[in-house]
Write a structure and sequence with these properties.
This protein is of the alpha+beta class and about 350 residues long. The protein has two domains: about 10-135, no CATH class; about 145-340, no CATH class. It contains five helices and 15 strands. The chain has helices spanning about 15-65, 75-85, 160, 230-240, 295, and strands spanning about 90-100, 105-110, 120, 130-135, 135-150, 155-160, 170-175, 210, 215-220, 245-260, 265-280, 310-315, 315-320, 325, 335-340. The strands form three sheets. Strands 1, 2, 5, 8, 13, 14 and 15 form a seven-stranded mixed beta sheet that branches. Strands 6, 7, 9, 10, 11 and 12 form a six-stranded mixed beta sheet that branches. A hairpin with a 4-residue loop joins β1 (about 90-100) and β2. α1 crosses α2. The longest helix has about 50 residues, at about 15-65.
Length: about 350
């Protein structure tokens, strides 16, 4: 029998077509792997730059809304955006500033001389006819004085102790004594609650607690010692002070007080920034008086039956989050936070 012979001459070159097709596919994957990674890296840099620029403008506005940097043409904004770019180049596309509502939004774009505006040049994707892609990042920030939020330490101050003392000298604030401003219209000791020590209510399992300025703070601790579950906070402060690190906390201020003992009620008006330099409390914490600058605070030592805290009120812009913000308070602390 004869063997049948089949000719494959008509299929020659088929493999070359398949290989050519696969090369195009492989180039496409290369574009995704390399070019997309490049775009993500560029956007991350732009995001850092827009965050820094927006936070800077908000901080300037929080301190003084007449500051030249508190504007939609802030030159420092572009500088911060550039410094967060690996190549030192970016483009601040827009700054939208609303002083009335205390918000600012900064949008930054890529800035490559070889690409179109706000775009990044691509390598592999260029083979497919995509030579560049636009990359932008936007950051929104708001600022204001806190009207509701959790205070880290459950202690309130009388407005008599704060008024006129922002950025002043260090002072000893006893939490139950007649050491407040004697000329204050609220009376001796800033109108303390009989049997009360200006401790505010704590949240479950926390040293501090939620403070809402719209609601009177009622039912405080009646002891002159620091709450025992605040030991970790006080130890952290002691460690920071010993290492030369500043301890600045936001604490509430009251302008009126009623009731007695655990039934006392404080009318809270604002949060203030207090730079802690030392303290003396008795009871469960059993921590000694701590100073970060003994020579400057020696005359303010709290001995014997004295219970209190040493430090000074400061003008401070915090980057803390978790606060509900309202208009800027003249003597209060201000908070700047990213919203998007």
């Amino acid at each position: 029998m004869r063997r049948l012979r089949v000719s494959y001459d008509g299929e020659r070159g088929g493999i070359a077509v398949i290989v050519a097709f696969l090369i195009v596919v492989l180039l496409g994957f290369a574009a995704l792997a390399v070019d997309v990674a490049k775009l993500y890296a560029e956007r991350a840099q732009l995001q850092n730059g827009s965050d820094a620029a927006a936070l800077m403008i908000a901080q300037k506005c929080a301190k003084n809304d007449a500051d030249a940097e508190c504007s939609a043409t802030s030159p420092l904004a572009a500088d911060l955006a550039n410094k967060n770019a690996v190549d030192g180049l970016s483009n601040v596309k827009s700054i939208t500033l609303d002083k009335t509502n205390r918000t600012v939004t900064v949008t930054a774009g890529a800035n490559e001389s070889s690409a179109s505006a706000n775009s990044v040049s691509l390598f592999f994707a260029g083979v497919l006819g995509i030579s560049s892609a636009e990359v932008n990042a936007s950051s929104s920030v708001r600022w204001g004085s806190p009207v509701e939020g959790t205070t880290i330490f459950p202690l309130a101050f009388s407005i008599c102790q704060v008024s006129g003392m922002v950025d002043g000298a260090a002072q000893l604030l006893q939490n139950h004594s007649a050491d407040a401003n004697p000329d204050c219209p609220l009376g001796p000791a800033g109108k303390t609650v009989p049997g009360g020590f200006a401790w505010t209510l704590q949240a479950t399992g926390q040293c501090g607690g939620l403070v809402n300025l719209a609601i009177n703070q009622s039912g405080s601790d009646t002891g002159n010692d620091g709450p025992s579950n605040c030991d970790a906070i006080l130890n952290k402060w002691a460690s920071d002070l010993a290492a030369g690190r500043p301890v600045i906390v936001l604490l509430p201020v009251y302008d009126d007080a009623t009731g007695t003992g655990s039934g006392g009620s404080y009318h809270l008006t604002s949060f203030v920034a207090f730079s802690v330099q030392g303290w003396a409390f008795s009871g469960a914490d059993k921590l000694p008086m701590v100073y970060n600058n003994l020579s400057a605070t020696k005359s303010l030592e709290c001995k014997g039956n004295c219970r209190g805290i040493i430090g000074k009120f400061v003008k401070y812009v915090s980057l803390a989050d978790g606060y509900k913000l309202g208009p800027v308070s003249p003597n209060g602390a201000t908070v700047v936070e990213l919203t998007s």
